[in-house]
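Query structure, 367 tokens:
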């Protein structure tokens, strides 16, 4: 029965263009740590978001065009036992990212603006399991982050934040009852601070001014659960709190020319809920369906991230043959409507009716 969970996770990982804050692309999970034996997996996903809006009448009412580029995601993990009580896992993921590209020549006030955010992380964890099925785990997380932006409508601004490495930690506890496929795991992931060596250019201050931009990727608390509810049927889900209100990218010159403005920031934290069901059809095949919801936080969104909340639907299937499992999933995300602003008071544009489509595959091998 427990194999059914793999299909659901495979589906949900690959349509996260609308995740928290608009820059989260994969939600960290401890799932691999609870696999049996020596296990390795590799994953690949592709997401195609469609995010567009219109300027308000006072700014010409021009359409923005689709400003969110397609992207791909990679992931990998390895898990093994040290003895009957101790196990470890090493996980690679790409937690945060953005690819903004407003087409030039549209008349839209942000035409020609571009931005990118790239990250990767490696997490190493140890887990100790007690005889009564409780476990505690923890470890270290090493993460890289880089960012760049071109914002012509703000003083011909551009910035390049060089890649920086930061470190954080993770710890949690879980309870399992294998006879009914029950598992509840609560995990805390710390914030990670980055100090980006930034080169900025503006009309006001000139070209190639150097500064340091501090960016804290957010701390979060994740509750993951699953339980068998009937023969070969599993219910699973998660609740995630992410501290997005402390996330801010404000290079020195940009903050000065905008009187304290941020390239990207968020007013509120987010809570995301997910629930799904998995069903094993036979020894070779299982299927799953799940949905997740992140409520909109309201207020104005950044012009470089004009989304607010999302609802995502996922379908997955897994084929197992011998010690190899192949999981595939497709997802469709309804991206929440929002408005952007130029002065923090009045709406500059309206973004509505947007979506993202994702698909992915994961290959797992048990040794």
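Result returned for the query:
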């Amino acid at each position: 029965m427990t194999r059914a969970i793999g299909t659901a996770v495979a589906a949900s990982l690959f349509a996260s263009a609308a995740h928290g804050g608009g820059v989260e692309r994969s939600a960290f999970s401890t799932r691999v740590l609870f696999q049996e034996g020596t296990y390795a997996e590799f994953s690949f996903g592709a997401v195609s978001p469609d995010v567009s809006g219109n300027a308000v009448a006072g700014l010409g009412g021009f359409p923005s065009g689709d400003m969110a580029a397609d992207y791909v995601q990679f992931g990998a993990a390895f898990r093994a036992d040290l003895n009957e009580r101790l196990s470890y896992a090493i996980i690679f993921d790409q937690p945060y990212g953005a690819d903004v590209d407003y087409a030039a020549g549209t008349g839209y006030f942000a035409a020609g603006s571009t931005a990118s955010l790239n990250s990767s992380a490696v997490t190493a964890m140890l887990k100790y399991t007690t005889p009564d099925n409780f476990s505690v785990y923890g470890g270290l997380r090493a993460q890289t982050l880089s960012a760049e932006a071109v914002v012509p409508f703000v003083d011909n601004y551009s910035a390049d934040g060089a890649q920086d490495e930061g470190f954080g930690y993770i710890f949690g506890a879980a309870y399992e009852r294998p006879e009914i496929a029950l598992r509840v795991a609560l995990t805390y992931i710390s914030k990670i601070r980055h100090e980006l060596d930034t080169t900025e250019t503006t009309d006001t201050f000139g070209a190639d001014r150097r500064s340091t931009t501090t960016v804290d990727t957010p701390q979060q608390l994740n509750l993951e659960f699953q339980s068998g509810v009937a023969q070969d049927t599993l219910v699973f889900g998660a609740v995630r709190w992410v501290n997005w209100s402390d996330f801010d990218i404000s290079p020195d010159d940009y903050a000065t020319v905008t009187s304290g403005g941020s390239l990207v920031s968020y007013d509120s934290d987010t809570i995301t809920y997910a629930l799904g069901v998995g069903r094993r059809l036979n020894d070779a095949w299982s299927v799953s369906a799940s949905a997740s919801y992140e409520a909109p936080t309201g207020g104005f969104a950044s012009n470089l991230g004009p989304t607010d909340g999302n609802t995502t639907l996922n379908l997955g299937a897994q084929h197992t043959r011998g010690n190899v499992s192949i999981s595939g999933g497709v997802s469709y995300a309804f991206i929440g409507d929002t408005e952007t602003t130029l002065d923090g008071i009045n709406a500059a544009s309206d973004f509505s009716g947007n979506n993202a489509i994702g698909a992915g595959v994961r290959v797992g091998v048990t040794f």
